[in-house]
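User:
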Amino acid sequence: MQHRSHPARCVALAISFTWLALATTIHAQSARLSGTNSWWFGFDRWDFAVDGHKVLVVAPKIEAPGRPWVWHGEFFGHKPNPDLALLGRGFHVVYMSVPDMLGSPEAVAHWNSFYRELTEKYGFAKKAALVGLSRGGLYCYNWAAANPDKVACIYADAPVCDFKSWPGGFGKGQRSDRDWQLVLDLHGFKSDAEAKAYGKNPVDNLAPLAVAKVPLLHVYGDADEAVPWDENTGVVAERYRKLGGSITLIAKPGGKHHPHGLDDSTPIVNFIWEHTASADAKAWLAKHGGGPLDADSRPLIRKLGTIDLDLVETTPIVFGGKLWRFEWVRQGIGQQYWDNQRTTNYFRFRDPESGEVTLPFADGHEFGSAFVNDDTVFVTGTKGRGQINIFASRDLKSWETWTALPAGRFGIFNTSICKAGDEFVLMFEIDKPIEEAGVAFTARFAKSPDLHTWTLTPPECNYAKDRYTAPHCLRWLDGWFYDFFLEAHDGYEMRVVRSRDLVKWEPSPLNPVLRAAPEDKLIANPKLTDAQRARIANATNLNNSDIDFCEWQGRLVVNYSWGNQQGVEHLAEGVYDGSLAQFLRGWFPQR
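Assistant: Predicted structure:
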């Protein structure tokens, strides 16, 4: 939104001295990664060769103590959410390209070389977390059986655990003549009968892993037509448990071979973290909220880029089991949404996946925000910049409305609602009266037991009267209110403070939350026109503002605006690969 500038001082960035010393020690003991450098989902990727084969290593922004790592058997980059979450928690992610070797003894030998390179030259942890998707299961299990003391855990997803099932197709699995010939050639089998009598498929060779107490996690579709679960995962589970091993199964009812993974990858991430991270790594991350971190130990928001133009005050929400984006469609000179066909401000919801929008509502309202409680969506909006009305719906079609704060006392802009225990709290932005606003812009608050009847809190409940602190997003967790606000400093930056009583506030030592950066201008919406892309490329970028977020499938979807802070704004999206609780706690690390 458009505001006037006011000077502010930067809160110094606090970084744990203990962790800096530890990180320095780690780097002193390990060679720096080298090779061809590129960008992978916002992380540094290094490509080089080991043992005559291409390898890659993706590095975290900040390394967890002990340099833990994840090793992919095949299909690196497919369904990357678990990798992204673990990168944020200080893991490296690695892959060696030995295609068409199907976990053969030759592939195991190449893996041995890569393991020595990573552990002896680069100081990686002595035990790796292995990830085997589909045929990648052959690579992971065969190398693990030969090196059980080097394996922290195995996550397998619809894995091939017996080449008789796939590619042999001698049971219910799909036959692949090409890949079956590879099996014969790689192992030197002279006939199908000799291959079928082979006794070192993963299903046959689990004892070394059981003795080493390597925990397993299998995710599978119980209708897998290519790699039937009962010929692969089912056999592994039965035999591993008989050997005293630990295996966790996550079934996808009706699921086929594709897609791999889980919509919410939290169980996968937690499994790998629990069994791979050292005690020091776990203690380190716990002090920082438990979620992903950037190079300065701040909660890592991965900026994905711009998704629309001229939209501000958007709110991502989850309603009816779907992700939605609430939008205020602006109308005004110099501030009108590019596709506003109406002659007024109004609100609507958009399905981000399809791009379809709901029917408009709340004509004439501005500065909206959405909030979900039980089976109802509530939307707050400012009318005439002095009155706050609430709209409620159970279907995003029919809307009930009432007034929360009548006009006459305040000049009002942004609004945001959170639930705090058994009551609801409304934060609203004011610029008058001056005795309550001080230096515009300032947060004031009201409370309600039912979202209908609202009571203003005392005037001392505010943040903050001494400078420009335009509020936008209010959250509550464990007795703390979190106010995400805009402050004028080297442009305009999103910052966060917290309070137990809405009177005394503690700023995050890690501020700012967001600041203008080149990543804002990335294109995250392929439907943007050439003209829109040109405007984005040439736009002035001096602010990150209007942050809002919701938890969806184990991650936070983050919306924010960027632009010149004078009406030419753009809507961008980011992701935090962790939970809401981790995000909030991460801004106030334990000392």
